[in-house]
Acetate--CoA ligase family protein (Siccirubricoccus deserti), 699 residues
Amino acid sequence: MIEHRICLSRVVNPRSVAVIGASDDVGKFGGRVIHYLIKHGYPGRLLPINPNRATIRGLPAYPGIGTVPEPVDVAILAVPVAHLLRQVEDCAAAGVGACIIITGKLADAGAEGAALQDRVLEVARAAGMRLVGPNCLGIFNMTDAAMLSSSLVLEAERVKPGGIGMVSQSGALMGTLVSVGLHHGAGFSRCISVGNQADLELCDFLDFLIDDPATRVIALYIEGLKDPARFAPLLRRARAAGKPVLCVKAGRSAAGAQAARSHTASLAGSFAAFEAVCREAGAVLCDDPAVMVQAADALDRLPRLPRAGMGLAVIASSGGSTVTTADMLPAHGLRLGEMAEATRAELRRWMPESHVHLPLDTGSFDDGTSEDGLSACMRSFMADPDIGAVVVPMTTQPAMAARAALFPELCRQGGRPVLFVMTAAEVGDAARQALRAADFPFLDRVADSLAVLRALEAESAGRDRAALPPPERPPGAGPAPALPGGALTEAEAKSLAAAYGVPVTRGVLAQDADAAVAAAEAIGFPVVLKGVSRAVVHKSDLGLVKLNLADAAAVRAAFAALPDIPLDGVLVQEMARGEAELILGARHEPGFGPLVLVGTGGVLVEVLRDVQVAPAPLRPADAEAMLRRLALWPVLAGVRGRPALDVAAAVDALVRLSWIAADLGPRLVEMDLNPILLRAVGGGAVAVDARATIHGDDA
Ligand code: ADP
Ligand code: MG
């Protein structure tokens, strides 16, 4: 165990800061660092280090860190990379608590830089000195006015303290996000750029923010986790502390690019695993970093959604903006609320019956522009059991600023989020200013407001999940039979599935045509023949699957027509029927644990990519929620005269497979049941194909 000189809260809120390479010239890194510290009112001891100056910014300068006559909590280093090691050694020798290393070109710039970074880390570790970075932009601590950074966002007149805590692997992106937040009037607690994470890493600061009283919401920009196994437990701890966590994870498009032996491995890559773990632990994954910050702001400054799955009210004085906003809802997975009778009755007091519908256009009715009418409508929305939030897409109109200023109070009284969108450009600035003055969030684009609402929806779904009991093992699920390591045959993989109660086709392995005919007669016609070999991944690609063989002659003909490749045997199988084909899969993601997948199955799975992934084991409700998120769901539910399918059977099979994944853990490389045929309600499901790769028992 390393004995650290300083705890994280002192790194973030140092009593004294030494700026190595301090300068009067704000064109230099060290000049900007000291300038921003002074400009934003750093209240602690400021210690410029520069061998060539007696004073900097009117403060006494020291020639080296070793000559500073008082304890230094944090040293900020924005020095040329060639000088870095010596400077860090000096800091270690001088008893500095932590170094924030802005200097780049370390592990971010190839092997030589990485070796230097390792040296720097060794020096720090040996001394118990902490490191932030290298290659970071430092820390903005708005709560304590400690801006330990050279980021240009600190040119802003004022950085507003508030409840958003942020950790970012990109310093430039963090600066940009703070500037986006400030434009919208958001306030921040601490923003930490972790850079190359040589020592302190994203999870350390996530852990810190969870306990930080100034932080109410946490936003993360993640490129790669140093230790993925720490992440999910921290997310659960944040949820228990009532602090929503939002994240953007870079590298989505690269995920799943690697060639894989199973469909599950190619479809449930590490990004899908990350997404699944976030959903399970109640964190909100966003695509767009700017949306993440605005959603964090909404969670910080607006009431939370009462629960997931409620509808929205859209209200404004422009028919055009209300209707186009409503049109965009389905694409964001959102819907208009169904107004209760009490809400309708209230609305009728202010407008003709013909206007009493959502979205609500207040422009065309007599008294619609009166403040009383607007307030009454808003209040009735917020008392409606099916309206979780209100979207107000304001267009140009007289007295915009005064009208906008009504909403903060209405939102506060109503206790539900109001997403105010100032859709106009410069002419809307007075309204924006009024909202900033009232400390109320606003958005500039309707699409952003809907993306934010989707994030709020995910946050509230995550909160609801926290109350669920742990998954329970269904009767007859396991234990696993003894199996060889490596790639299993279809028959072996099916025996594993069957041991957990997943229904599989009956089948017999035959070595010649006579045996195949005898097996077919025992199973009952029609049958399927499959040439099987451990070496073959996709049987039908090679013409090895012969379906729907009605009699002995057809079996003989199919046997003779099998391609001439080395086979372990020919599997004779009952011919199963179903209305839809699903893929069920399982794998183990290092750091994240066992996962299951369900999707539209058959030979086109990789083309359709209609899949959902979740951590194993599952509750039946989790399995059903995954099915509902599939594009295939309307087919399962029954469309256009087609019967509703046996969703309960699919849920049961998925839950059972999830226990295989949970029990085998890291032994399970991957497993596919593709397809499982699903019949109409009451007809059940059956896996007609299975494959798996596992590490042997002793692995
Ligand atoms: P592979 O995936 O290795 O190409 P499968 O065993 O999945 O081979 O067979 C290919 C397709 O044939 C399946 O997607 C399914 O549509 C159909 N099929 C396979 N076995 C059966 C069976 N026993 N009953 C009905 N259809 C089957
Ligand atoms: Mg298959």
